[in-house]
Each structure stands twice: as C-alpha cells, then as structure tokens.
C-alpha cells in the first residue's frame, strides 16, 4: 500500500491528455458529492438488461457493490446503456464512473485513451444453440448444417475464424436484425443458432412460439472477457473499483482450517484508497461473493439457469482464478 501514490503518479503521467486532468481522488470526490455511482454497459441478458422497466443483472450487483463500498448503505447507483454513438460520446468524455466493456467495445468505440480496463467481471462466450432432439452433440457437428447468426457482429467474426481454423463449412443463414434471427430459429429455419451465450440462454428459456426445448452445446466458439473499466484519469478510483471486484471474487474461496475464505480471503487496507475499515465485510455480507451473484442472475436461481462453464473457478474446470492472500 505504501507504493500507491507512486502508482497514481505514473498513471497520471501516462494518461491521455485529451481527457480530464489526472487528480488523485477526483472521481471518488465526485461520487461522494453526487451520492451515487454511475455505471454503463451494453444490454445483455443476465448481465445488464432492462426488464419490466428496471435494470437487472450481474453487472447491476457489481455496480451496487462498488457504491456500497465507496458510499456505505446510503449509496445509490445510476445505470445507463451503451449502444448508440451518442452514448459512447459520454463514455469518452468521462461521464461514467464504471463501464463494463469487452475488448471489442473498447477498440471499436475509440475508448482506449479514455478508459482503463480493470478486473474481469464475467467471461462471455460465443456458443451454439440446437433443438433438444437434435442429433448434434459436439460443436464440430454443425458442419454442413444451416446456421443462423447476426452478420457484422463479433459473433459472426468468431464463427468465421472458428470455421477456418477447423477447416469446416456451414450453410450460412445471416440476419441483420435480432428479431429476424430469433424468429428464424424459433420456426426451425435453421438447425443451429450462434450468438452470445447469455442471449442463447434467454432464447432457450423462452422456448419461442412453437415451445420446443433447446440446449446450448458445451464447447464454445470463442470466449472473451467483460472488464470493469474506469475513466483513465484517476488511478485511486480505478484501484477502489478493482479491489471491490477482487474482494467479491476472492470471497468464493471457502474458509478452511488452513486458509482464509469469504471476506478474509483477500484483506485489503482500504484507507489508502478512500475506503473505511469495514468496507470489505459490508460488501461481501451484502452480495455473498461472485458465486452467489452468478447464481441469482445467470445460474440456477435465475430464469436462464446457465451453468458456470468457463466462468467457474479453475478448480471446477473454468477459467476463474481470483486473487487471495494466505
């Protein structure tokens, strides 16, 4: 912790001059004056989506956890969508305190000089959905089958890369609009639907007009992270956000006779970054750690009932490896 001012100074020196001046603690001061944390993300089922007029999803829980740590029980959040060029203008201008972004979203919207990618909050996948009665059991068996997908998307690019790498071909059924893509699958115009896994889980849960059951193939076409990014000009705020995310993920580590778990798995002295002594216990007690957040929004406690898959801990076959201190 003694090195934090030096880290902040280096981050300030390297920050893009087109954004606001780098002042340690400036964003935390703004958050405290406002009494709320502003978060932004692309809409995705189970992660961040407006349902019944309200935002719901895993990223909402992470945003609330950051607000709880920084502001205490009275802290509020504001959540907004990232989709249109005008909405990304606000992201480039530093209007948001936390942005949940993929690498593609950062690059394609010219955010590399405006945001600092932080810890991975979720590992999204491009996957394939088939009817429950389909003979297709492995991803390679989609070869020569009719496959629906949205063209000019990251999914389409991943699909083409995967096909080229595996020297396979498919009967391409591309669409420009999501509703056309969904309708085509639901009336069996294609044998396979390819898309982001959380979106496919929602299609599976809704079952469509013909009410047939579907399943997501276990193998993935591609896997990519969603980061908790912050405006580039304030390393102290970036550290606060990062440590909050890390604390929730470390809390998944079980308590044993020889190792710390829960809120004690990664004890962070928050004083140097503007947090009080009880911030970590407060956040973990309120949200239960990453596993509990996943279950509520994506897993068995949600309508999507999506298995952890690549988002699981490495010890359970996934890619998760949260930081901890012995």
Automatic annotation (TrEMBL):
One of its GO terms (biological process) is amino acid transport. The keyword Disulfide bond does not apply. Residues 1-24 form the signal peptide. The keyword Transport applies. Gene3D superfamilies: Periplasmic binding protein-like II (3.40.190.10). Keywords: Signal, Transport. InterPro entries: Bact_solute-bind_prot3 (IPR051455). It comes from the Bacteria. Belongs to the bacterial solute-binding protein 3 family. This is Solute-binding protein family 3/N-terminal domain-containing protein. It comes from Methylocystis bryophila.
């Amino acid at each position: 912790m003694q090195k934090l001012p030096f880290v902040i100074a280096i981050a300030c020196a390297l920050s893009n001059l087109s954004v606001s001046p780098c002042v340690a603690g400036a964003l935390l001061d703004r958050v405290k004056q406002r009494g709320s944390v502003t978060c932004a993300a692309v809409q995705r089922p189970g992660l961040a989506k407006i349902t019944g007029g309200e935002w719901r999803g895993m990223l909402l829980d992470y945003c609330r956890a950051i607000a709880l740590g920084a502001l205490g029980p009275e802290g509020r959040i504001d959540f907004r969508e990232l989709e249109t060029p005008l909405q990304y203008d606000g992201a480039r201008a530093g209007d948001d305190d936390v942005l949940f972004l993929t690498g593609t979203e950062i690059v394609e919207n010219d955010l590399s000089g405006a945001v600092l990618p932080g810890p991975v909050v979720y590992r999204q996948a491009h996957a394939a959905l088939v009817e429950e009665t389909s003979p297709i059991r492995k991803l390679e068996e989609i070869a020569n089958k009719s496959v629906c997908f949205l063209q000019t998307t990251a999914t389409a690019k991943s699909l083409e890369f995967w096909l080229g790498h595996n020297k396979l071909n498919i009967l391409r059924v591309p669409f420009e609009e999501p509703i056309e893509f969904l309708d085509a699958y639901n009336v069996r115009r294609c044998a396979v639907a390819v898309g982001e896994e959380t979106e496919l889980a929602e299609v599976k849960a809704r079952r469509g007009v013909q009410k047939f059951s579907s399943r997501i193939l276990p193998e993935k076409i591609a896997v990519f992270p969603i980061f908790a990014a912050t405006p580039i000009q304030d390393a102290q705020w970036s550290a606060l956000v990062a440590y909050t995310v890390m604390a929730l993920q470390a809390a998944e580590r079980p308590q044993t006779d020889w190792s710390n778990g829960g809120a004690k798995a990664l004890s962070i002295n928050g004083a140097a970054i503007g947090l009080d002594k009880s911030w970590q216990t407060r956040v973990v007690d309120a949200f239960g750690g990453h596993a509990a957040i996943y279950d509520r929004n994506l897993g068995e406690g949600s309508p999507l009932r999506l298995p952890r898959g690549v988002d699981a801990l490495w010890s359970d076959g996934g890619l998760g490896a949260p930081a901890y201190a012995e």
